[in-house]
Amino acid sequence: MQRFCGYKVLVDNGSSANIRPFSTLNKLKVDDERIHKNNICVRGFDGGGKDSFGDIMLELTIGPVEFTMEFQVLDMVISYNFLLGRPWIHVAKAVSSSLHQMVKFEWDRQEIIVHGDENLCAFNDTSILFIEA
Fold first, then answer.
1. E-assigned strands of the chain?
2. Which residue has the higher pLDDT, 123 or 42?
3. Which of 30, 115, 118, 128 would give a disulfide with 25, using CB separation of 3.0 to 4.6 Å?
C-alpha cells in the first residue's frame, strides 16, 4: 500500500464521488490497466462536466483505519491530489469541519481525529478512547 505523504486531500461533503486526478496516479506510477473504463460525466458545482477516464479501487489509511474506496479518475488540473466525497464520508461515518480543518469519525470504539493543518501522511497515529456516558 502506498502512503500519501505530502499530498493535499480535500474532504467535500457536497461531492457524490471520490475523485483522483490522472496526474496523481501517474506520479505514483499506478498501472493504467487498473482503471476500469466507464461512461460517467462528473459535474462540478459550476455546472460544467468532465468525462471520467474510469474508476479505480484504491486503499488508503486514515488514522488506524484502512479503507478500500472507488475513485473516479479525471484528467484535470486541480489544487488537491485527491478528493474524498460522500462515499468515503458515509463509509467512515465521518463528520468534517471546514472551519476547524478536521475530520472526526469513530472506529473500533475510538474517536479518530485528523487535523488538516498538521503535517500528516493521510495518517494520524493519535486517537482518543471513546467512552460512552
1. 9-11, 19-21, 41-43, 49-51, 54-62, 65-74, 82-84, 95-97, 102-107, 110-115, 127-129
2. 42
3. 30
Compute the distance between CA of residue 88 and CA of residue 9 in angstroms, rounded to an integer. Answer: 12
Distance CA 50, CA 39 (A): 11
Q: Which of helix, strand or coil describes residue 41?
A: strand
Distances (CA, A) of 93 to 8, 10, 23, 103: 21, 17, 29, 10
Non-local CB neighbours of 58 within 8 Å, separated by 6+ positions: 20, 68, 69, 71
- The model's pTM is 0.76
**Residues facing residue 54 across a β-bridge:** 73
**How far is Cα 7 from Cα 4, in angstroms, rounded to an integer?**
6
- What does the block give as the cell for 109? 470504539
For the cut 50, the answer to whether the pLDDT of residue 36 exceeds it is yes
